[in-house]
Amino acid sequence: MTEEAPELVHVERGDDGVAVVTLDNGKVNALSVALLAQLRAAAEDLTADPPGAVVITGGDRIFAAGAQITEFLEDPEARPSQVADQNRLTAQGHTFLTAFNAVAAIPRATFAEIAGFALGGGCELALACDFRIASDRAKLGQPEILLGIIPGGGGTQRLSRLVGPAKAKDLVLSGRQVGAAEALAMGLVDAVVPADELSAHVRAKAAELAGGAVVAQALAKRAIDEGLDRRLGEGLTLEQELFTASFVTDDAATGINSFLEHGPGKADFTGT
Length: 272
Known about the structure:
Strand order of the largest sheet: 1-2-3-4-6-9
Distance between the termini: 46 Å
Shape: globular
CATH architecture of the largest domain: Alpha-Beta Complex
Order of helices and strands: EEHEHEEHEEHHEHEHHHH
Structural class: alpha/beta
């Protein structure tokens, strides 16, 4: 009889429209192949049937401390003298990239709730979210260089787009960790709050967006994300296409009618 695989990623949809995705893989939430597969599946489910907003958390002490390094070795039981062959390494990198790309593709606002360490793959997962909110004791970084390797789950690309190439090179080439205050100053996180207030703060932010015009939010998110990969003129054309698409939603009719009758900020959107 086959032993059932442990559940390493839990998804809970709340009455406030927020789906909370919790990583649950031991003390450090190592990003094993099994966890990444479950994370990708969860993200794909949230894309197929979107909630109002998504929060990704590792619990109240840690976010994720990176890859499960032993999975990159030929013989995890022996002192490593040789890493896995090229095909295996390519497959490992693909597992990280597809999981994080699936998170980035969720058509709703996504929040990384960073309670403690977010290192290596953990930092890359946070980078795949739309917003990163950290506790005052959080530490973030891309320490792969200290193992003689480089980030492989988006760390060189999403990080440089977020904080600029010079700051990204500082973190990636040194492998150093930054505390919450420095992460906020460089734009790596969007807000820092006391540890005991983190969860409530993030859930409130997520619920606020979940109660808004989520279809329009999805279109705006697509315009921004896809526009960054295009020339300005192409991005503006995409924006015009999605601007037009937003007007045929029920929420647009609701919002415009509410504005004309009651002024801004009073619409009761249905998410359609």
